[in-house]
Design brief:
Blueprint (H helix, E strand, L loop, with lengths): L4 H14 L3 H19 L9 H9 L3 H24 L4 H15 L2 E8 L3 E8 L3 H18 L5 E5 L2 E7 L9
Antiparallel strand pairs: 1-2, 2-4, 3-4
Helix pairs in contact: 1-2, 4-6
């Protein structure tokens, strides 16, 4: 692969400053393009600083945030998942939130599964309570559509905890 000298220099300096190989950095870049950029661009995803994102949520009321979350989880999330994964189920829902967490960098999340049937998703962010309300409604709406159940949720200023059972999981035990 041939790249301009200036780009090669930038990539090599960045790789060295991060303590990784040039090849590892290039692989990261290609992975991000493959998993996120090429698809996000088709949906008009824009970049925004964390401070700008926080400022935006400061101006949105809690009622509007709940409404936006419901619409985002039921409409936008399902449209993206249909486009990217071609189906809606627990696996594609978890993959969607993995990609959103990994590339949006707005929240950290953890998924815990018990017996591959009960899932608890903990989401932490540094935005505000209004954003937590948005996320709660987004997750609840998306889970209802992807998995067909109503989850339980707990909300705090900077986190949400969502728990649900996958009714479609078939146990392999006899």
């Amino acid at each position: 692969m041939r790249i301009p000298r200036e780009l090669d220099d930038v990539l090599r300096r960045d790789a060295e400053s991060r303590g990784i190989s040039f090849s590892s950095l290039v692989s990261e870049i290609f992975t991000k393009y493959s998993e996120w950029d090429r698809l996000a661009n088709k949906f008009g995803v824009v970049s925004l600083s964390k401070d700008g994102f926080r400022d935006m949520w400061e101006t949105i009321g809690k009622e509007r945030a709940a409404s936006m979350g419901k619409e985002g989880g039921s409409k936008a999330a399902t449209e993206v998942a249909h486009f990217w994964f071609k189906r809606l189920n627990t696996r594609t829902f978890l993959k969607l939130i993995e990609l959103l967490g990994k590339y949006s960098r707005i929240f950290e999340y953890e998924v815990e599964s018990r017996g591959e049937r009960e899932y608890t998703i903990t989401v932490h962010h540094e935005i505000n309570e209004t954003y937590s309300i948005y996320l709660e409604n987004w997750y609840e709406s998306a889970i209802k559509i992807f998995i067909g159940v109503t989850p339980r949720s707990e909300v705090s200023r900077n986190s949400i905890v969502i728990t649900f059972q996958d009714p479609n999981h078939r146990s392999t035990a006899t």
